[in-house]
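Box 3.1. Reading complex inputs
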Amino acid sequence: MSVDLTRLTAAELSSLLSTGEVSSVEATRAHLDRIDAVDGAVHAFLHVNARALEVAADIDRRRAAGDALGELAGVPLAIKDVLVTTDMPSTSGSKILEGFMSPYDATVVTRSRAAGLVPLGKTNMDEFAMGSSTEHSAFGPTRNPWDLDRIPGGSGGGSAAAVAAFEAPLALGSDTGGSIRQPAHVTGTVGMKPTYGGVSRYGAIALASSLDQIGPVSRTVLDSALLHDVIAGHDPHDSTSLAQQWPSFAAAAREGATGEGLRGLRVGVIKELPDSGFQPGVSASFRAALALLEAQGAEIVEISAPHFEYGVAAYYLILPAEASSNLAKFDSVRFGLRVDVPGGTVEDVMAATRDAGFGDEVKRRIILGTYALSAGYYDAYYGSAQKVRTLIQRDFDAAFSSVDVIATPSAPTTAFRLGEKIDDPLQMYLNDVTTIPANLAGVPGISIPSGLADDDGLPVGIQFLAPAREDARLYRVGAGMEALLVEAWGGPLLDRAPALATAHGTEGGAR
Amino acid sequence: MAKVALMDFDKALELFEPVLGFEVHVELNTKTKMFSGAGNPAHPENHDAEPNTLVAPVDMGLPGSLPVVNETAVRYSISLGLALGCSIAPSSRFARKNYFYPDLGKNYQISQYDEPIAFDGAVEIELSDGTLVTVPIERAHMEEDAGKLTHMGGSTGRIQGAEYSLVDYNRAGVPLVEIVTKPIFGADRRAPEVAKAYVAAIRDIVLALGISEARMERGNLRCDANVSLRPRVAVGEPVPPLGTRTETKNVNSMRSVERAVRYEIQRQAAILAAGGSITQETRHWHEDTGTTSPGRPKSDADDYRYFPEPDLLPVAPSEALIESLRGALPEAPAARRRRLKAEWGFTDLEFQDVANGGLLAEVDATVKAGASPAAARKWWTGEITRIANAEGVEPSSLVAPADVAALQQLVDAGTLTDKLARQVLEGVIAGEGTPQEVVDARGLAVVSDDGALIAAIDEALAAQPDVLAKIRDGKVQAAGAVIGAVMKAMRGQADAARVRELVLARAAE
């Protein structure tokens, strides 16, 4: 076998699997070997599935028996640890859930299993998805495969790094304020946050219920679309999931890759997004990508979104408020960590457990949220934040009356160094300025690589936003943009990532 | 505990005006819980479930779990709201009430807060003398129940002194409707009776709707009674503001509600008259001593950090649904009372006897099961109420109306005498089975075999040879001695009238 199966996209792997040229066991073993070789350095995984090969063998058996299988059957999948699984621990990156085994699977996991995807393991994340760097994981940070001294983004840095380091072709992520898109931006990968309600949240350990959304992480737009097709759709277990039929996102991506859809496309650029806060290399990459679109016949339209600047402030009231309530269940009574207090009351045990089990960032946000919801402060904080949310939704409505999509840089800077912002939460929070509005408004957003920043040579992403329920439009536009860029680069951006030293010697050497 | 001073009730009423308010929690009898697919312990099929067997991830607050609203519970709540004369909100929302407690899996309760599904209603209740009183309803809202804690290792079964506690999450998530009244003024010396009649009216309504088992002893219906006093003033003087209230929690029978209100009036009056002040607090009712004791202090400043439940959409019933539920409402309690009184042909006194005992539903069901109204009334207001009072429970908890009707049918058929029927009733209450099963098991049927009776008569006549002659002489009452002897020989299991017939027949031979 001459091909390195880990370098293939999920779509490529899927066609080899369907013709029988490659078995799922071979594909899964290749990825397990890769994890074995590089994950000591990257630390994308918190848990590797010991039964992955058994699952793969079962898919191979079913294929041999002539069973009708989904397009992604036999393709390995990394699962963010925020999603509960019955066969692997689910910790959400927290010590308070160390070793926790869920009695049920998250709906997206159930659907992925039903589609024949092979769970490879659970990926690292900031504790309870609070962070932009994975440095807040209770189990140590994940490192960026482009530069191991830099952060892979967060909170879903594990999923993005796993995909960027070729440890998995696909991953599941969750995005509350950018946790899928910002890691995609800093790792040169693709990440999609679907329309709120487009994908079930059942079994996703809640951070902020009104903002959380589960989505795909991959190296290409088509691969994200294929995974999105598997996980999308109404779930009776999630009251906020939309009861609508979604078109095929993969079909949209394939159609978009022809570039036809870019002609006449109206692309909105927000005039209020300050250039000053953006790293020059990020702005330059963004403008170059817009120029490519324009050359293909797209129209760049300046739009106004006057309330976006209040987005971060509103977000950091709504999120902690909901999180303070969502995280109350971690109290030692029914599951998870328990710190005993000899002679103490149940309240003493709860307090000691939460003190020992939660990290500083989690405590910071619980305190913020508890305060924001308190009687006498509710109107000033939570109430005002909800009003800002409505204003941002109106900004989107107004903008989408004159443009088809909005484009922004996915984040203000490229990957920063580990430790650089860990003691400055405000700087860390401001990293989410471009991604947060989509969560506040519930609209879909996708980040795809736009190139390397000319000032530091690190990956940069471009984000496209569309009206709610127009997820397919993002796959069409994203695939069109991707095709132009890959053609300009002469190959995928990740081909330019430095080789990772492996546990067994130099990458690419004999095994 | 120091002896609590109580003021004489009449004296208290002379000095103070009581103001009442009630919060009644109704457990709905849906098949599944408010927010999960787990079986509902308030549904008749699930009464005997083992602890923690009726639980879904959301009832345990497991990571990643999400609530889903039970549509049947919403329909039941709308029907109840309509029956309480409330307006139904075209859109209402759930909120989270945040507090840490081990019986609350999520450490927040999902409850309706500022947007209840039903609001602004009124319930007409009838007092023992037929007086009608209108109780204004503030709101009726949907929420979920919490689990149940059992404190182990202490002597009292309470949390103080316990070594550890067991938690049963079966009850967590049981659908509740909480009905909140506005302040009730003007009840005066009838305040305790108003309290009892109000709870009886709510019970009648939910039973008529069929939305709850309404068994108070099982907690299907729970009443929190708020009582405050304010000084009486002369006509023309400004009305004083409302006094500080206490909330006596979870009073579990109608009779106890009546007693608890009476007790609080007497207790508060004694404190106020002595120059003291009332502590705003919840209080516990003690059935055995007929007293209340302080619970936790409660203030309006309790901060539950309410906010709209982001996991649920607003409840927005269509106008068509509301109207169809309105069309399907059973008749209003007042109209029902008028109808039943006419149908049953009771005198005012007889009817009030049933109504005041909170037994309308039971008598109605017993009549529907085949008993005559008079017999149904006699059983429920008589023997069953007597036993219930002795045991401190609701009469309805003792025996099913169908069993009462069956019992009466055995009497009507001559199988049982009244005295035997009372023994059979005891057996049914003791759980020995249906009346027929108790009759069979205990061998309690009337001896209807004339042969056996005649043999006993012969024996009695042999012992009292002069009786037949006396009867033939026209002294018919002499038969009594023989009848008594026969009844004694048959251990009561004979129909005395038949024995008499047989004795007289013998004399006529």
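In summary: Chain B touches chain A at residues 57, 60-69, 96, 98, 100, 102, 105-108, 165, 167, 301, 303, 305-307, 310-313 (CB under 8 Å).
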